[in-house]
Amino acid sequence: MNKFLWILLVAFLAGHTLMAQDRHVFSFRDTTFLLDGKPFQIISGEMHPARIPREYWRHRIRMAKAMGCNTIAVYLFWNYHESSPGVWDFRTGNHDIAAFIRMCGEEKMWVLLRPGPYVCAEWDWGGLPFYLLKTPDMKVRCMDPRYMSAVKRYVARVAAEVAPLQCDKGGPILMTQIENEYGSYGNDRTYLETLRKWWRASGISVPFYTADGATDYMLGAGSLPGCAIGLDSGGSDGDFAQAFSQNPHVPAFSSESYPGWLTHWKEKWQRPDTSGILREVRYLLSHGRSLNLYVVHGGTNFGFTAGANAFSPVQFQPDVTSYDYDAPIDEQGNATPKYYALRKLIGEYAGKKLPDVPASVPAMETASFSLEPFTSLWEHLPAGVRSPQPRPMEDYGQHSGMILYRTHLIGHKSGSLTITEPHDYAMIFLNGRLVDTVFRDGGKWTVKLPKSEVKDPLLEILVEGMGHINFAQYMIDRKGITDRVTLNGMTLMNWEIFNLPLSESYVGGLTNGMSKGGDLKEGIFFKGSFELEQVADTYFDMSGFKKGVVWVNGHNLGRYWYVGPQQRLYCPASWLKKGKNVMVVLDLQQHEGAAVKGRKTLDGE
Fold this sequence. Notes:
The protein is α+β, with helices and mostly antiparallel strands. It has 11 helices and 33 strands. Strand 12 (252-257), helix 9 and strand 13 (291-293) form a beta-alpha-beta unit. The longest helix is centred in the N-terminal third of the chain and has 20 residues, at 3-22. The protein is globular.
């Protein structure tokens, strides 16, 4: 054998040996997790790549590792990857989920994969693709063949991305979750079994687990034979006894232990006391139980990705833009007192020195700058579509932003106007003037229309979608006007409908110009610029404005609202640039310009 062939053979054998060494077997022995045949305790911290600027992925992973985690739990958001049937994005920016998983492996961290298809996560519609809502009688999370056809496509496409990254192939993925908290929603075991079968057929070979609340009925409906049992959360002997009674031959673990909690608009920031999570984690570690902290780092619901909750037909609780979650690692990536308390506790059980905590990502204040009115929604309406009665925005292929409904009043021209149902925030205009607003929550959807001297008064209803419901039984949640509008009981007909998804391309194409004469009509775009000598993360303080959306250099930072608690929006350094930067704001209630300033923190000084 010549020298060149010998070198090639040695290289091949070395590579093959390395690959073989990198392959691992993750398995169960009754109630114990095993890694390569040895007991293994998962200490996981959850984070979501879609909510974290890609430039900070590695920093956040290292932060979790330095706190004592050996695993990262990762949700995939189906609607983040499939915008319309068969149109996928697993490559651009934060969409490259395979790159994030590989990065976890590079940092010597294992991965728990949570691909759904439904995930909840306070994400818009729990991650389900919005095009499903275009079908009027669509049923989700069950064996409805139209839903399952889309699910099968999703499973195959995701598996193509992640199957090579399983631990038995040399990657970091230890386990894959089947659905999510299904026992809180339905009881279709055939559906869960079908998901498992399709994941297996598509190349997912690592073990599976389910995740449900630690109650008999939730575990009964949501678990599967042969799958590890995740408890949301599991922090006591009683919780694990529930899992054992369901299946005594598989491991159970706390698949979501909550160091923080989510926040809705009109609430105070949710800031649970640290003592609760320390007590739960100490119990789990001392009993050799595995766990996942939901979340170790939350990140941000950039754009229109925040979801909502509802636990009655007339309730609606939209989530704020920040997903700080009062997590151990805050929205901007800083270690909090809760982080150091958990790091100290986990370190007591680690048996080795934990890595040093990475340096904080720089944050900055900016000088104050002014935003002034430069145009409005009314100057940039698209072509309208005629409809006998209102239809929701999903009927037109739209899933977020705003939608305008316009008609002339014939017959009744004043009195009690009822919108059934406004999803989610409606502004009612009569002859170009704002009469009233309606917020979906609470079911009070009637306003008084004043008398008008106009022969056939012009009625306009501008509706903002504020996130699809992402949990429990009221998930079929279309946006805009979902049924009808009546005036004194008369159904109003003959509408013209204008879609306003407020995409980044739409905002980028806005031109200067306001209507001449009279008062400015609500729905105004404000614009201003600011100069930077250096860039760093910042929080833009929108307290001078009322309710709207912010774009910086074309990037949608999300919503603010004076009702609180959030009036500062996180902007990562990667979205800023040295020199001139441009901010555009759509405010639904403001008429006059105001100043904006970058701050270093989400809340307070």
